[in-house]
Amino acid sequence: MEHAIIARTPGTADVLEWSEIDILPPGPGEVLVRHTAVGLNFIDTYFRSGLYPWPSHTLIPGGEAAGVIEAVGAGVTGLNPGDRVAYTTPNGACSTARVLPADRLVALPGTIPDEIAASVMLKGLTAHYLIHSSHAVQPGQTVLVHAAAGGVGLLLGQWLAAKGVRAIGTAGGPDKVALALAHGYETVIDYRADEFATQVLHATGGQGVDCVYDSVGRDTWRGSLKCLRKRGMLVSFGQSSGTLDDFRMSDLATGSFSANRPVLFDYISDSQELRSRADALFSAISEGVLTPRIGQSYALCDTAKAHRALEARQTTGATVLIP
């Protein structure tokens, strides 16, 4: 019998249950994957709490995973039982096995361990589209990244440094500051000790930054705008502190700023684009441009504990759940 983490109603991490589930054989165009590792992300808490709409009357959280193909349905080509694969979807990964459309899977190179793959499919592809599409960085630019010691933040710091971009980060506490500094950031501001906007302007000689990558939301967006140089870009790609309920377009007029609110799945909805971005991500890891950091791991059945730790800001880097 297979198992999954299930929520039957929105709420705190207490609503998550370890339950038996039934899995049907893969149909045409589908693949059955046995999970070996599952990644944890803040978006999982958004769905669980009800901040994001539920996909059905019950929820299986989890947006990224790696595993081994056990069976393929009719019409599937290029994927076979025994192949190692990984994927990212909005939900459904917190299970021991799962049936998925074949075009949502990417084959894993031998150089990428399962745990690393599970930790970067959502976070790494997010980092890729942020700096290549949402605001395509150029050498010599300066950017600010909030939550620099988180899973996406640590990948961004390394990738930006490799591209010749000056990265300034924010993090909470001296340990997280030190961690971010070791992953490509030139300057990291402890937002618990300092008002970050003032420090960013000081670090840039009053010029501000070309772009702010902000996954925090309510607590940071006003300060983020203060950090921008004229005609700079705010990329708001998350809201770990809450939504930007009082944001107005007129707030951008203070510096002719631009802003966008991208979502990963709009950048990988096409299977060819998904595989192109995944190839670039895996190449960056294999070549040593990126060194993904798994900060902590939990048994899949302890997903509720992992959610609590993530929401309490007690984690660094990526969190992996092991079935």
TrEMBL record:
Domain Enoyl reductase (ER): 11-321
SUPFAM superfamilies per record: GroES-like (SSF50129), NAD(P)-binding Rossmann-fold domains (SSF51735)
Gene Ontology MF terms: mRNA 3'-UTR AU-rich region binding; NADPH binding; quinone reductase (NADPH) activity
Any single GO CC term annotated in Swiss-Prot or TrEMBL for this entry: cytosol
Domain of life the protein comes from: Bacteria
Record key words, sorted: NADP, Oxidoreductase
SMART domains for this protein: PKS_ER
Xref: Pfam families: ADH_N, ADH_zinc_N
InterPro entries: ADH-like_C, ADH-like_N, ER, GroES-like_sf, NAD(P)-bd_dom_sf, QOR-like
CDD domains in alphabetical order: QOR2
Protein name stated in the entry: NADPH2:quinone reductase
